[in-house]
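Researcher: Structure prediction, please.
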Amino acid sequence: MKIHVHDTTADTAADAAAALRRAILTAAARDGTPARWPDFVALHFNSDYVADVLREGLMRDGDQADDRACDDGGDDSQHAAPREAPHGGSAPGDTPTAGAPAEAPPRATSPGALHGASSCRGVMSGRGALTEAAVSAGAFCIDDPLGDYGTALCAISADCPAAQAAASALNRALVAAGRVGEAPDLIWLSPTPGQEEQVLAGIESVVGPGVPVVGGSAADNTVAGGWQIFDAAQCATEGVLVSVLFPSGTISLAYQNGYAPAGPRGVATQVEGRRLVRIDDRPAAQVYDEWSGVGILNDGASAQSNILAASTLRPLGRPVAADDRSDTYLLAHPSTVHPDGAIELFADVHEGEVLVQMQGDLDGLASRAGRVADLARTAADLRPQDIAGALMVYCGGCMLATQDRMDSVVSGIAVALPQVPFLGIFTFGEQGNIMGVGNRHGNLMISCVLFSK
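Model: Predicted structure follows.
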């Protein structure tokens, strides 16, 4: 198994698709597979790019003439220049598009297992975080002739609710991988925000609870609903995108957060969907304001409706027992205070659940990604030289809060995984597997998936 990571800061989706396509096929040529597209491509991108243009650009018939960006002497000035990676240069497989050879890459068939989802403000890789000023996209490419991979998207609608859409997408992905009736080693998931718990239920209705699910909800830049997902056949703004991975190597993963209990706790006594109405039979906003000290209320009325930024360092936690019986916490991010004193969350809570006030700080959030990567590595006793590549999921809310510390986030991952190519995405909800608990959806979470060679 070989993994390559490519990224671009092209101005338009068409230019980004051309740059990534060229980089992907050039890497394949260097590996001696000139007419072979990678077996799996996870493409994550700033939502300012138009998903359908990206998809069409990557799916372009390999027999057609290459576009301007692939011609001899083509102008690559719109792409990010190579930057020195933290702690020792660019990671092997992290291929800057500006550094790719100018000659046209070998012809190749179009991708099959293509997993595309938008990421808040862009992506990060071993060369840094591409989230400020520039529009960016990144591709995580697996070359694995001995493995099997499949991707499928199903739109969510009144006739096809979230759980049904997830089950349908998963079954189609298994068909695409040629592994119908089998349990994959990993499911890489990109739902659109809003119904992630139902999505997980739909997945487990097909493969049961034993298959780890890792991923994150598609995001935009302003929480305005501009998220996008696509596979090789279609795009959607409300749906479920599922990839099944049967790699020839092993997988190791970790799923955690960078917060600690602050002390106060209570019980959710009235819940309406994702509206937390009452805690301990009192208005939820009033209780949360007392616990957190965020200052969201003024004389009993809502001081502000959108509290996403204000609550990022003070989320609510739900204790779940891990394998060692110690408590770990699944987080719910308060997003909105309603005039009736209810709080909207980015995750489901249930009546009778214990809620704990959590607290974090910016330094802890910046360092946690490296710690999660190190945990994934040590859990499988992997040496860095044994790792082909890594996928990182870092909450978009955490990224926005630590925007001026993103170099530290990237360098922490590089220290934990020296010379390992990785792609990091910024999501509006994170799905992961807690050992001894199972697959869960949470907010402000971080996960890492490692692929061995």
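Model: The first helix runs from residue 13 to 30.
Researcher: Thanks, that helps.
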